[in-house]
Write a structure and sequence with these properties.
Radius of gyration: 25 Å
CATH class of the domain at 5-184 and 222-277: Alpha Beta
Number of strands: 30
Number of helices: 21
Strand order of the largest sheet: 7-6-5-3-4-8-9-19
Helix content: 25-40%
Largest sheet: 8 strands, mixed
CATH topology of the domain at 5-184 and 222-277: Rossmann fold
Length: 636
């Protein structure tokens, strides 16, 4: 007798359920490749997972083992992950832009013997340390471009593993179905590594139970439908992407859609018209910047309409979010503004049909909320950490507050201590840290997850997150403030890529700003300002004045004690490759403060400049080691 959906306690069982329900009559995955949207039915999805799982078993994969998967969001990523689970194992997600030492750490720490990699770039990373990992059995790749001449016996194409699986089934009929049936909810499903913003990443161990309960809890709050199109874009190495997107889509039986490349995401989803999307706060800021840049480059009429009508959108967003009555005048005015402007903006950024747009991972600037709600996009925030199994706190329709992360989902409890520490009790809580039980004991107490975040619970049940507890700052007069909140407001500017705010045990707040080379460079050319490199551009007095306008804008919304008083423009962009950002683009505050300590100290001195050493790369590829004088400037 076939299982009901409610009886499915593992993700492979859910895949089998929808395969038996729909077969080849409904699309499970859609992927744009070579400019064409390819469709894969539930039959295709199920059979690919089946044969890849059997192929892995024939290569030696056993129940309880881990498989490391590295690459951009593509169907093969899912096939490898769910095939591993179907064989009784757990997958480990790596980031496509991770460096070799990071990949090696994920692999050795998780004890993975198999790697499934996207392409030559990822394969090369693993080959660099293969001799240091004697247990490495196979490196399987799904994009063969550039790998035809490789003859390492460790390498195997994805298609060859599928063929092994087909042969294995002939000799072991029914093995796959038995393996899926043997799966239990408390089997290991996924190793999710923390972002490592404060220390070495920890491997949070999750079971099917922890992840599925959170996905089903989200499904109650945000019910997806089988006919919905879901965007898969946030890197699959990030734990939140799975529960808030892939697992959600799987539980609902929705269609997952993969853009051709990260760079083509907006144009791809514009063609497709997704119903639901989960993206990072950083992408929200980037999209706002792109809209403003496009407006700046447009005709006089379009500029006029944008500046005339956007205030209408902002007004409507304020009225809705503040739950105020909207009179007929504003309804009519907004309808006109929507038809003339907002609909076109939504179409351009790919959200014309989107029913809900979720984000999580860091604080969102109020300006971002008002922009998206102003153009009619239902932007909602969610809160969670890697250890919580997704995002157990989320905004509800009609109850969105820009200060909060929302309300707990069903089955989740939240408490905030007198000291402001946020604790969660959730069915999605991790079962352990791999090879680090001491850290688990410190993080989980009597069923409560100690998040390490500082916050406040409002009387209406909404949770406000201030910042990581370790990152909250206190000025010398005792005033506490969240640097992350101020940084999010600064990054709203299309001219600013990153910002680092200082002020702990100092008389006032200051910041270092990393400019957006593309938009500031374009602005410089339009204003006939010559420059040679990023470093040269960043130190131009005119650029300092440009950034000053944005910092003054930010200060107008801050209390006197947390206003930015002094600033400097960094001579380089902050980069995950330099360990200044995590792979999900979170600021590694401790590392950055150590790296730029001289600049930070100069902001609190009487110095007008501070020296920094850097490597300049010219447009022809030449490099040169130089010392650069970084200017210190006042905001107020």
């Amino acid at each position: 007798m076939a299982m009901t959906l409610a009886e499915c306690d593992t993700f492979p069982k859910i895949i089998k359920y929808y395969y038996e329900k729909h077969g080849d009559k409904k699309v499970a995955i859609r992927y744009k490749q070579y400019g064409i949207w390819r469709k894969f039915t539930w039959k295709d999805f199920y059979e690919t997972i089946k044969y890849f799982a059997l192929g892995m078993v024939s290569l030696g994969l056993t129940r309880g083992e881990r498989v490391l998967v590295i690459g951009d969001n593509e169907p093969e990523w899912l096939y490898a992950a769910f095939a591993t689970q179907a064989a009784g194992g757990a997958f480990v997600g790596g980031f496509a832009d991770s460096h070799t030492p990071e990949i090696q750490y994920y692999m050795t720490h998780s004890d993975a013997r198999f790697v499934v990699a996207e392409d030559q770039e990822q394969v090369d990373k693993v080959l660099l340390f293969k001799d240091d990992v004697p247990d490495l059995q196979k490196i399987i790749y799904w994009d063969p471009k550039g790998l035809w001449s490789y003859d390492d016996p460790l390498l195997m194409p994805f298609e060859d593993v599928l063929n092994l699986g087909r042969e294995y089934e002939k000799e072991h009929p029914g093995f796959f179905e038995e393996s899926v049936a043997r799966g239990k909810g408390d089997d290991l499903a996924q190793f999710a590594y923390t972002s490592g913003t404060t220390a070495q990443p920890k491997g949070a161990v999750h079971t099917h139970n922890t992840l599925m309960k959170m996905a089903r809890s989200w499904q109650i709050v945000e019910p997806l439908r089988e006919e919905d199109n879901i965007l898969s874009f946030v890197p699959l190495g990030w734990a939140a992407e799975w529960v808030c997107n892939e697992y959600m889509a799987l539980v609902a039986g929705s269609t997952l859609n993969f853009p051709e490349e990260p760079e083509t995401m907006q144009s791809d989803i514009r063609e497709l018209g997704v119903d639901y999307a989960f993206i990072s706060p950083k992408l929200l800021e980037v999209q706002i910047g792109e809209v403003e840049t496009n407006v700046a480059d447009s005709t006089t009429l379009k500029k006029f309409l944008y500046h005339l009508l956007m205030p209408v959108g902002y007004k409507m967003a304020h009225l809705k979010i503040d739950k105020e009555e909207i009179n007929l005048f504003w309804k009519i005015l907004y309808k006109i503004a929507y038809l003339i402007l907002f609909r076109q903006i939504r179409d351009r950024i790919g959200y014309l049909k989107v029913r809900v747009l979720y984000t999580a991972g860091s604080i969102i600037a109020p300006e971002s909320y008002y922009f998206y709600h102003g153009i009619g996009v239902n932007l909602k925030n969610a809160y969670g950490i890697t250890e919580s199994g997704g995002c157990p706190v989320v905004h509800r329709d009609g109850d969105i507050n820009i200060e909060t992360t929302g309300l707990p989902t069903p089955g989740v409890e939240v408490r905030v201590t007198d000291g402001g520490d946020v604790h969660l009790r959730t069915p999605g809580i991790l079962v352990n840290y791999h090879k680090n039980p001491e850290a688990y004991t410190k993080s989980v107490s009597n069923g409560w997850l100690l998040t390490g975040d500082s916050g406040f619970m409002r009387d209406d049940g909404h949770l406000i997150i201030f910042d990581r507890s370790a990152d909250l700052m206190t000025t010398s007069d005792g005033t506490k403030f969240s640097p992350q909140y101020i940084e999010s407001k600064i990054r709203v500017s299309r001219y600013i890529k990153e910002a680092i705010v200082f002020g702990n045990n100092r008389p006032f707040a200051t910041c270092l700003v990393s400019i957006d080379y593309g938009t500031v460079g374009k602005w410089a050319e339009e204003n006939h300002l010559t420059y040679t490199t990023y470093t040269d551009l960043s130190q131009k007095p005119e650029v300092y004045q440009l950034i000053l306008k944005d910092l003054k804008r930010v200060n107008r919304g801050l209390s006197d004690t947390s206003k930015i008083k002094k600033y400097a423009l960094l001579h380089k962009e902050l980069d995950a490759d330099d360990a200044e950002l995590s792979r999900v683009r979170k600021l590694r505050r401790g590392y950055v403060e150590d790296t730029y300590r001289a600049q930070m100290e100069a902001l609190y001195s009487d110095e007008k400049q501070v020296m920094a050493e850097t490597v300049i790369t010219y447009r022809d590829g030449r490099t040169k080691d130089v010392k650069i004088a970084i200017r210190i400037a006042f905001v107020e």
